[in-house]
Give the backbone structure.
Amino acid sequence: MNRQKLQIKFSRESAKYKIAIKPESLAHAGEFARNSLGKHARKIVVVSNPKVFRLYGNTLNRSLAGAGFEFSHFLMRDGEKYKNLNSAEAALSAFANVGLARTDAVVALGGGVVGDLAGFASAIYLRGISFLQIPTTLLAMVDSSVGGKTGVNSDSGKNLVGAFHQPRGVLIDPTVLATLPRRELTAGFCEMIKQGAVGGRSLLGKTDNFLASYGSATFRRHKDDRRFQQQISDLVAAHIAFKAEIVAGDERESQGRTDHRSRKVLNFGHTLAHALEKATNYSYFRHGEAVGHGILFAAELSKSLALCGEKDVKLLNDVVHRAGSLPGLAGIDLREVLEAFSFDKKNIAGSLQMVLMHGIGKPVILTGSDIPRPLIRKVLRNFLQNQT
């Protein structure tokens, strides 16, 4: 089976990197790391969590050793609530204890939490050292591993402390998805649906067709099917290609841009998602599950503003529900969610920017002054009551 290779090219030549997608490629991660980092890299710290490291740590270690690296590992606790400054400080201490130098590197082995934490720690250690992404969840493969956004959560909100720090390479082995629980698969598919909603009917259609054939409930049954492996590799590649194109044109999410190619459009569904996560102390939702709810809320708000029609709203509802069941919203406090909106990192000059839609593939960025606050409250109240 051929390896798919993608490349993100920025205006800064030093920021470009390759993304390799191939089943069973984790066993060759050492070779990929050497090619990405160059001959002077000597030491690597693998950042992971205990669950992922038990599954894949030995395979990665053997490959790194074969490529001539000295390696150690730092294991953070599993879960979004542990993506914080305390964990970042512990990671920095681990880097210092093994004597990582400017020519050395960090490898993130895990999902989005691990990737964000590892990327942020590598961004601020010695004012920036190289790191590689080896995502092990579907959501991380199509989203957080690509684009260079790194960060941690604080008491005030999600990802409010962070840095733009591009990886030196991303290695994706779709066969590791076979070990994911159903909720993690649903979370990843919701992130894909978000990208399809802003990317266009072709990308959304590919995602919907795949879900119709291999939903999260039957995903594992097909793990040894080469046709299935090729199709999931192709789907992941299509989503990464879309995101890479957006990111390359707006690497640092320019605050002045509000066009449909702004990197901000990738935040579709995230205004409510981040608020739900904060209101539940990052312990109830998988990130992608919260995004699933956020997609449906943004679609309903778009319909209420007469931006898009019922047909597109129904389509998104159908695709999201095909991805799997989402945790209910019973007991979520309306006031806490509205308060969390004010801490969102998409606030510009005191006004929240929200990504809505004129239709599939037609995102629009609006500010709080464009959307009557009573309408937001009304739509949100109805949404929280109906998504039980």
